Structures are given as structure tokens and as C-alpha cells.
Amino acid sequence: MISMAKMTELRKTVLEELAAITEGRCESTQDQMVGRFLKWEDWQRASQAVQRGLSAEERNRQPAFLSPPPGWLPPLS
Predict the structure, then answer these.
(1) What is the pLDDT of residues 32-59, one digit of tens each?
(2) Spatial distance between the Cα atoms of 14 and 6, rounded to a whole number of angstroms
(3) Fewer CB under 10 Å: which end of the chain, C or N?
């Protein structure tokens, strides 16, 4: 668990970055996000897990068309 001092420091850093972004005093937001992504292995592993899950779902998914219950759709004629 993160200590209160560390949490307060993290919040202060995030708020300073947000202020810099809104005032246009920093690098682009995209550059910051890419930098953080490259630095943090947890983000990389999480994105790989999501990508693998989506790929597996795409490969294994076979469309299942269900008929609507009677009376749910108006008559076609």
C-alpha cells in the first residue's frame, strides 16, 4: 500500500503536470504518455494482456444470431 506522504507527493506531481498542460508549458501530452508507457513495465504487460484477449476473442468468436421473443418487433408487413 502507498503511504500518505507518497500519495500526497504523487497528487502534487499530477496536479503540476495538469497545470503545465493546460497552460501549454510542457511537452505534448502524447509524448508524456508514450514516455510513461515505455518506462512502466506494468502498463506494457497490461496492454499486451488486453491485446491478446481481444485477439483470442476475435479468433474464437462465432456469431450467434438469436430470434427476438414474439411480440418484441412490429410486424414486417
Answers:
(1) 777 777 787 887 888 888 888 888 777 7
(2) 12
(3) C
Q: How crowded is residue 43: how many other Cβ atoms within 10 Å of its Cβ?
A: 13
For the chain, domain boundaries: 19-50
CA distance linking residue 12 with residue 18, whole number of Å: 10
pLDDT in tens, 12-37: 888 888 787 777 776 666 667 777 77
Contact 14, 22 (CB under 8 A): no
* Grid cell of 24 as nine digits: 501549454
* Amino acid identity for residue 75 in this structure: P
Return the amino acid letter for 13. Answer: T
**Residues 6 or more apart whose Cβ sits within 8 Å of residue 57:** none
CA distance 18 to 7: 16
